[in-house]
């Protein structure tokens, strides 16, 4: 027999070597101490309302003559409830899949206990049948719900159970998360693999392992013909902080510390060897000849009429642009599901409705008919998680776009949203690299956007001596993802609701005479012009206090965690410029102005400029605020600098101009 093989790959920045010795507490069910019960705070997080004291899962394989191979996992969890806000943790839910006899998960050996202190002594009560309920969620999914008795502040609950899963419904152990919504003092996962099963084990997240060991083990499968040797692996993380999300991430599953599995191959005695894993070249070949992918690109007779409609355009760049915007209006996007594959594309065109992938595969086929160099690119959207290039896993992809080469320049095209400028991808698709499927072996392509979230806004204001109000005009000029968001909002709500929503963006002013320019011409600069007046009146005032950031004010720092171990992922670069000019009344003078500031990250990848001056010749106060984030992604090492940058932005945007009557 072949030796057990497990391949380790570290996703992102996970450290797989054991760090400074952390002793495994080896907690046992039923052995809760008074010391554990009396403790009220923990160094890992003194503010936590609950904490996992110990959790462990152990998976192994068994065989049943009627069911076949099964995965059994024993769970043991001990939690401490520190505050009433965590009482909900006294209810646990165990999901189960139930279908035919040989295709159902089985829960057994469920037990649980609540411990609490009373008069200095340890008290406990075990769960009973009346505390256990089974709920039907769908035709095949159920959950066992357990309500622990006497859950009070300071109590400990612990529970254990075994789940048996036939490999015909799931051929790999469940993902084990070392980190959750509350801090965890010790989290451990053990896996014993028989010599004829081969798994890739993928570690994800940013917390270091304190235990990473392996040892030979005798494996009893419940069938003497299948009993064998194998390897037992142990992985542990200590003092895992609660995973708290902040803005600007893809999905928390990209960053939370976990361990997951993919079946690579099997070599069962008296059976054949089966290989489940693919390499990237295999994936390219599989998709190239897949009926619902590559073959769709070869069946394009239904597109002949469209091809002929654009035949008169000889300039390739002009033709590409016209074809793109024409096709973007032909099919409504079906958002009910997301897949890289396509159904009948002829019917999609006839019915004028299809998924994004169907539209983009159709566009690829059409452009090939027009002799463009077009290829499909598969990717994973932000909410689906990032792709790990070390593991060729086809089921991790859920979206297809079209990539075109023209005069040495590449365009990533997506027809799913009519508000997109040609060459732009939806925000959901800005999630690292994509995999191009071509007539060679395929390759990864950079999907980093060329367009930014860019806006240039000019405010010209003065204080009207008649009304006593600040009046003026505003012009907003936007491109890239800023303009895209404006067009999308306008299409969704219509002009009147758009105007109402737009009004809410301003600080203490009312806008009117709103005028939109170029919103239908996506390749042009999007412009919004308007007049405004302040809600406050300053007539008769000896002192006037004005915040010049009547729009675009950053009032709150989005980054609040003291530490962030995962990247800040904006998706695109940002360039926001705000210019403000205020003509002050002749009978007033400047008492004070906000102080100037110019903050640059150490690697010059981000900058905030805030400059406010008074021009005596024009009697105007001129202010400029400029926020530039050159990178779509900032890594954990840059978090403190980025957080401090935003602290300064919030501070400066809150400062006022003070005018004093002469």
Task: Please give a handful of descriptors for the protein shown.
about 650 residues; Immunoglobulin-like; C8orf32 fold; Jelly Rolls; 8 helices
Structure explained in plain terms:
This protein has 662 residues and is mainly β. It has three domains: 6-275, Immunoglobulin-like (Sandwich), CATH 2.60.40; 280-445, C8orf32 fold (Roll); 453-661, Jelly Rolls. The longest helix has 24 residues, at 480-503. It is flat and about 95 Å long. The relative contact order is 0.08. Mean pLDDT is 93; it is low at 1-20.
Let me know the average pLDDT: 93
Name the structural class. mainly beta
Coarse morphology? flat
- For the secondary structure, the number of strands is 36
Distance between the termini: 96 Å
Highest CATH level, the class of the largest domain: Mainly Beta
CATH architecture of the largest domain: Sandwich
Topology of this structure?
Elements: E1 6-10, H1 34-38, E2 50-64, E3 68-81, E4 91-97, E5 106-118, E6 121-126, E7 132-136, E8 141-147, E9 156-166, E10 176-177, E11 184-194, E12 197-204, E13 211-219, E14 228-240, E15 258-267, E16 273-275, H2 280-288, H3 304-309, H4 316-327, E17 332-333, H5 345-351, E18 353-354, H6 356-369, E19 373-379, E20 399-406, E21 409-413, E22 434-436, E23 443-445, E24 453-463, E25 469-479, H7 480-503, E26 509-517, E27 526-537, E28 543-546, E29 568-569, E30 574-583, E31 588-592, E32 597-600, E33 606-615, E34 620-629, E35 633-634, H8 639-653, E36 657-661
Parallel strand pairs: 1-12, 2-11, 17-18, 24-30
Antiparallel strand pairs: 2-3, 3-9, 4-8, 5-6, 5-9, 7-8, 10-15, 11-14, 12-15, 13-14, 15-16, 19-20, 19-22, 20-21, 22-23, 24-25, 25-27, 26-27, 28-36, 29-35, 30-34, 31-36, 32-33, 33-34
